[in-house]
Specification:
By secondary structure, this protein is an alpha+beta fold. The chain folds into two domains: 196 residues, no CATH class; 155 residues, no CATH class. Helices cover 47% and strands 17% of the residues. It is built from twelve helices and twelve strands. Strands 1, 2, 3, 4, 5, 6, 7, 8, 9, 10, 11 and 12 form a twelve-stranded mixed β-sheet that branches. Strand 3 and strand 4 form a beta hairpin. The longest helix has 44 residues. About 4% of the residues have low confidence.
């Protein structure tokens, strides 16, 4: 039998029983639509989670911190009398910077250090307490922080403010009920940075440093939002004023190293190598991979829930095909009597079962895709918008999902009709013709 003749015969047989076919296909429609909607929801949650992660923006970056030795429970941590650091602590020294720079795939290694005392940034009567960080780079652009205004180059006597920090000036003498002060335009303005320390007798000593704000970073939900960046050598001088001793990074070490790699796919591998050196290294890539693994499991679970509906539909297809064979037993005997082979009969009934699955799958794809679109419309209308830009999506339907669902629904139809079709193909023509 030619394929075109087989296809025409299958369509004619399905057309003769439109009501039964449509009722059976409804189960497949529900199952397919459920699979598409639930998996789309899981994918949408995954994309929403990974795109809105706090500070996850640079997958080439590795943050390295000093390594700490494990201390058995119940034992106290000893302190090195020379450095004041916990004994056995793996410090981040200038030699560490050179060792990591020599690793294959590493583009840049730069230390970052914090202020060891209290400081307040003043603009007129307004004050601002920012997180002051010293960086050993001439241009903050190497960190790929988004810039709102000004420049990213840093020289002595200059600073760059994070987007959130630039909007946190307040009036310490403001009375209750008064409107908050207007935030100053700090770009290219020279402000006063007041450093404060106390002597052993409790006497407060202040030191005022004039500092020019040359840039403001755009808010990006990252650590940089609340920071003020200055040159590391300048911050080192301030720390020496706080402590009254010369800072030796070979002895005290840096607070943190920032490592950038050439290939983000190698970030986790390089971070593991740094961990093996005794330091603590972590990368955004590890966080993203962990979240993606969780949502892949969630997609499988959601897909399995939707597949239960397809299982129920498969039973319905098998029942419909079994009834069709009973009703058409004499027709099968007549087909065999005029020359139809077992293969021809098997192909006809398998084709009809596949047709039911295909029709139901096609309807499920349309409803599932439409339902996903409607959920996104509801989400964009009623769900809170992302304050950092972007559309809030409840679901995300990749192009492969409807195609996969349609093929899967068709396969469900074929598998469901396999036993009834084999039974029809193996009927004895004489017995089939005598069937009442």
């Amino acid at each position: 039998m030619r394929f075109i003749d087989l296809l025409r015969l299958i369509m004619d047989n399905l057309g003769r029983r439109k009501g039964r076919v449509m009722l059976t296909a409804i189960g497949v429609v529900i199952g397919t639509a459920s699979v598409i909607l639930l998996i789309s929801l899981a994918i949408g949650l995954q994309r929403s989670a990974t795109s809105n992660l706090w500070g996850i923006s640079d997958l080439k970056r590795i943050d390295v911190y000093p390594g700490y030795s494990e201390v058995p429970m119940g034992m106290s941590v000893s302190v090195d009398s020379k450095t004041g650091m916990p004994a056995g602590m793996q410090l981040l020294t200038p030699q560490t910077v050179e060792d990591i720079k020599a690793m294959p795939g590493v583009e840049m290694v730069t230390p970052r250090h914090g202020l060891w005392g209290q400081a307040v940034l003043k603009s007129g009567r307004l004050e601002n307490y920012s997180w002051i960080q010293g960086v050993d780079v001439a241009d903050l652009g190497v960190f790929e922080y988004p810039l709102e205004s000004g420049v990213t180059t840093l020289e002595r006597g200059q600073a760059i403010l994070g987007g959130w920090a630039a909007q946190q000036f307040y009036d310490p003498k403001q009375r209750p009920g008064q409107d908050p002060p207007t935030q100053p335009d700090v770009i290219d303005q020279t402000l006063r940075l007041v450093l404060t320390k106390w002597t052993n007798d409790g006497v407060m000593i202040n030191k005022t440093v004039n500092i020019k704000i040359v840039g403001v970073l755009a808010q990006a939900q990252g650590e940089q939002d609340g920071a003020m960046f200055v040159r590391l050598d300048e911050l080192t001088a301030w720390n020496e004023w706080f402590t009254g001793t010369r800072v030796n990074y070979n002895r005290e070490g840096y607070n943190q190293l920032i490592v950038r790699v050439a290939d983000p796919e190698k970030a986790s591998e390089i971070a593991d190598a740094i961990n093996n050196m005794g330091y603590q290294a972590n990368t955004s890539q590890d966080v993203v991979q962990g979240i993606n693994s969780f949502f892949i499991v969630l997609q499988v679970v959601f897909g399995g829930i939707g597949a239960i509906s397809l299982l129920v539909a498969a039973i319905g297809i098998a029942n419909t095909m079994a009834m069709a064979i009973l009703e058409r037993t004499r027709e099968i005997g007549l087909m065999k009597a005029v020359g139809a082979t077992n293969k021809d009969v098997l192909s006809i009934f398998l084709g009809e079962a596949a047709g039911i699955g295909f029709i139901g799958g096609l309807g499920g794809v349309i409803i599932g895709w439409g339902g996903s679109f409607l959920l996104n419309m509801v989400a964009s209308t009623f769900m809170p918008s992302n304050p950092y830009g972007g559309t809030q999506l409840a679901t995300s339907t990749p192009i492969w999902l409807p195609a996969f669902a349609l093929v899967f629904a068709t396969l469900v139809g074929i598998i469901s009709g396999l036993y009834p079709s084999l039974r029809a193909a193996t009927l004895v023509p004489v017995n089939a013709l005598k069937y009442e």
